[in-house]
Predict the 3D structure of the following.
Amino acid sequence: MEETVMQIKDMFRKKIDREIQGVIIVGQGEETNVAQELEEYVVTRELQRHFADFFAAYKKGIQGTTPKMGVWISGFFGSGKSHFLKILSYLLQNKQVGDKHAIDYFIEDQKITNQMVLADMQLAANTPSDVILFNIDSKSDSNGKENKDAIVNVFLKVFNEMQGFCGSMPHLADLERRLSEEGRFEEFKEKFEEEYGDPWESSRQDFDFIQDSVVDVLSDMDFMSESAARNWCEKATESYQISIEDFAKRVKSYIDKKGNNHHVVFLVDEIGQYIGDDSKLMLNLQTVTEELGKECMGKAWVIVTSQQDIDSITKVKGNDFSKIQGRFDTRLSLSSANVDAVIKKRILDKTETAAQSLRLLYDQKATIIKNLIVFNDGVEKKLYANAEDFAEVYPFVPYQFNLLASVLTSIRTHGASGKHLSEGERSMLALFKESAMQLMDDEMGAIVPFYRFYDALENFLDHSHSSVIIRAYDNSYINPEKKEKDVFAINVLKTLFLIKYVLEIEANVDNIVSLMITSIDDDRISLKAQVEDALKVLMRQMLIQKNGSIYVFLTDEEQEINNEIEKENVEMPEVITKIAEMIYEDIFSSKKYQYPSFSGRYAFSFNQAVDDRPYKANQNYDIGLRVLTPWYEGGTDDGTLRLLSGQGKEVLVVLPNDDAFLTEMRAYLKIERFLRKNTSVQLAKYETIKEAKRVEMRERNGNAKLYLTEALKEATIYVNGDVLHTSGKEVTSRINEAIGRLVQTVYHKLSYIDAAMVEADIRKMFKTSNQLSLALGDTGESNVHALDDVLQFVAGNSRMHMKTSMKTIKDRFMKAPYGFVEDDIHWLVARLFKRGDLSGAV
């Protein structure tokens, strides 16, 4: 009987499909969840320290007074800030769940073992306090941010609500407070219900409709005269102003009335998100905190969470925020690094049997697994360290913790929807749980591929991202079988979307393959072929684009702009001209070939061309360099090229048949043309996309240069009717060597100069007697062949009764096959004069 393979859902200690609150929504408290939340809350090493620091600071306000009553909790998406804030709120209000208090969970499960810290926590729990926990974005009015007192208004609203007063209408809250202070609020509520028929709490929102009843009740109660009540109602519909000082005094008087060392704690989630880079809001927060600190001296606390730490937020232009830094003296920074510890403990904890089977499996297949999941871009990605690690993290791969944290942060900064912001964030916990649930019926050996996280995130995404993927399902090229889910090409598309804005990973084929692994038995080679096919389809459908070796997901707007760019017409000659410029200005920029002997005395200019196009007009040198691209339409068979290079006195550099550099250059020119036209495509995100296109344009140019340089290294070079065989791989040295060979053939009489003479030598020659030549020993005359040729040239002219001028000598001997320089010619002529050979001829 063969043993059955364990299914993934049977591996975990706690059921993987149990209800876990996926999002910590501040301001939601169902009692049932609170117990589970406190029970499953994992206090990581980092949090041990934060609890200790927080309660040590809080204690100062209990045992005495302190002006430093601000706590700033920072940390990125998924680092557990909101959760930490919520747990603090349970501890501070000494929340009771069944017959236990919040702190009991910390003591019994030994979440915190340091007795000093537990004593501080107990002290805080025993201090009576009103805990007001809220998400500032969802509590603020829709247009509230424009108001420079936005923050104090939100604080007032939640403070009123906490006391049972009307939050949305501060005028009403003031009336309720006055009634309450005189002990007549309950009486008012009863009378109102008798008069109006509905309870006060549910009717007060519609103040305009109940004014008459309110006036009647107030005057019946003898609380106000009818006319005073009428007046008050008129005022109640006007806008409400409260100064920050008054607000702080109001909190102070509330605390004093309560007596008994009473505390009020404002816990504000996502303040950083709300403030953004608005310095007015920042100033407002500073003043609120400062006044509360001055008035209440440590009995009122402000605890906020923010993605940025306080220092980076207070760098807002030109204002002095040193005061706020003084108030927010306790700063706790949560890192996402601990997320994996929490997830392993709360979700991935395995039964002993499962852990053992997994360790065995890893030991058998360690090498296979190591060769299966590999990344090739310089940034470290964690992979399984050993069998123990494998058993703990399975069915995930360790790199997924950090990569997903980066993905969430990047989606958030690139405006993939504001939806999830006020509704609370997706926690990493929920994403891992839901992704594991998708595999719960698979057998041991299956692995969660990265695209599974997309499905868990989908409802939180911006339309311009998700609609691309939704539409891909209807595209019969991408999804020919009309499947509802699990279309391979779409899974590749989801993967590319997730890593679109992430710097830690490069979206090249090999990395995409690693992200797509769904089982430790996958065959990497066939998976790679599948991925490559999928990428081709997606590119043809314009849903992704390829930049160099990297594939990029395109949003709706980007697709629209790419279509516009695609329509730009770039002619072949334009691309070739640009390539020529790149070769002759950038890669091989020397304009002359330096002849090696006589230390650079002889430098030969050469014509420069690419395919049939000269790089610069009117070049008519004796030799040339011509680069042939894969787009060249002349004959490129070996025979033709040998012939061409022999006859044309040219070095031919024949690039390999890969036109990647031309494609990149064409793409560069299309974008450039599009940006230059600056068409009036009215898109909200147009500016950012244009900026991205500028960056892409530079990248394309860089890629073109890279590919072109590679192509030049691999090129076949023809010179003098032959293929050049050279050891060098370096572009410049290869081409120089070829031109050198050409120069030796074309200027084959340059070697007639065996001594380089200058003006000084001529002077010396005329000073000395004619016997100079004898001093040379047996070698006879310097540059003797050159002298002979000049002499013959002059004699030939004489025979035809022509005078020879210096100019004609230069025209003849500075060109091929000689290539002499002026100094050579001056010396030769002078020497012939001195010898007496030229008398009468010149």
Remarks:
- The longest strand covers residues 129-135.
- The two ends are 114 Å apart (CA to CA).
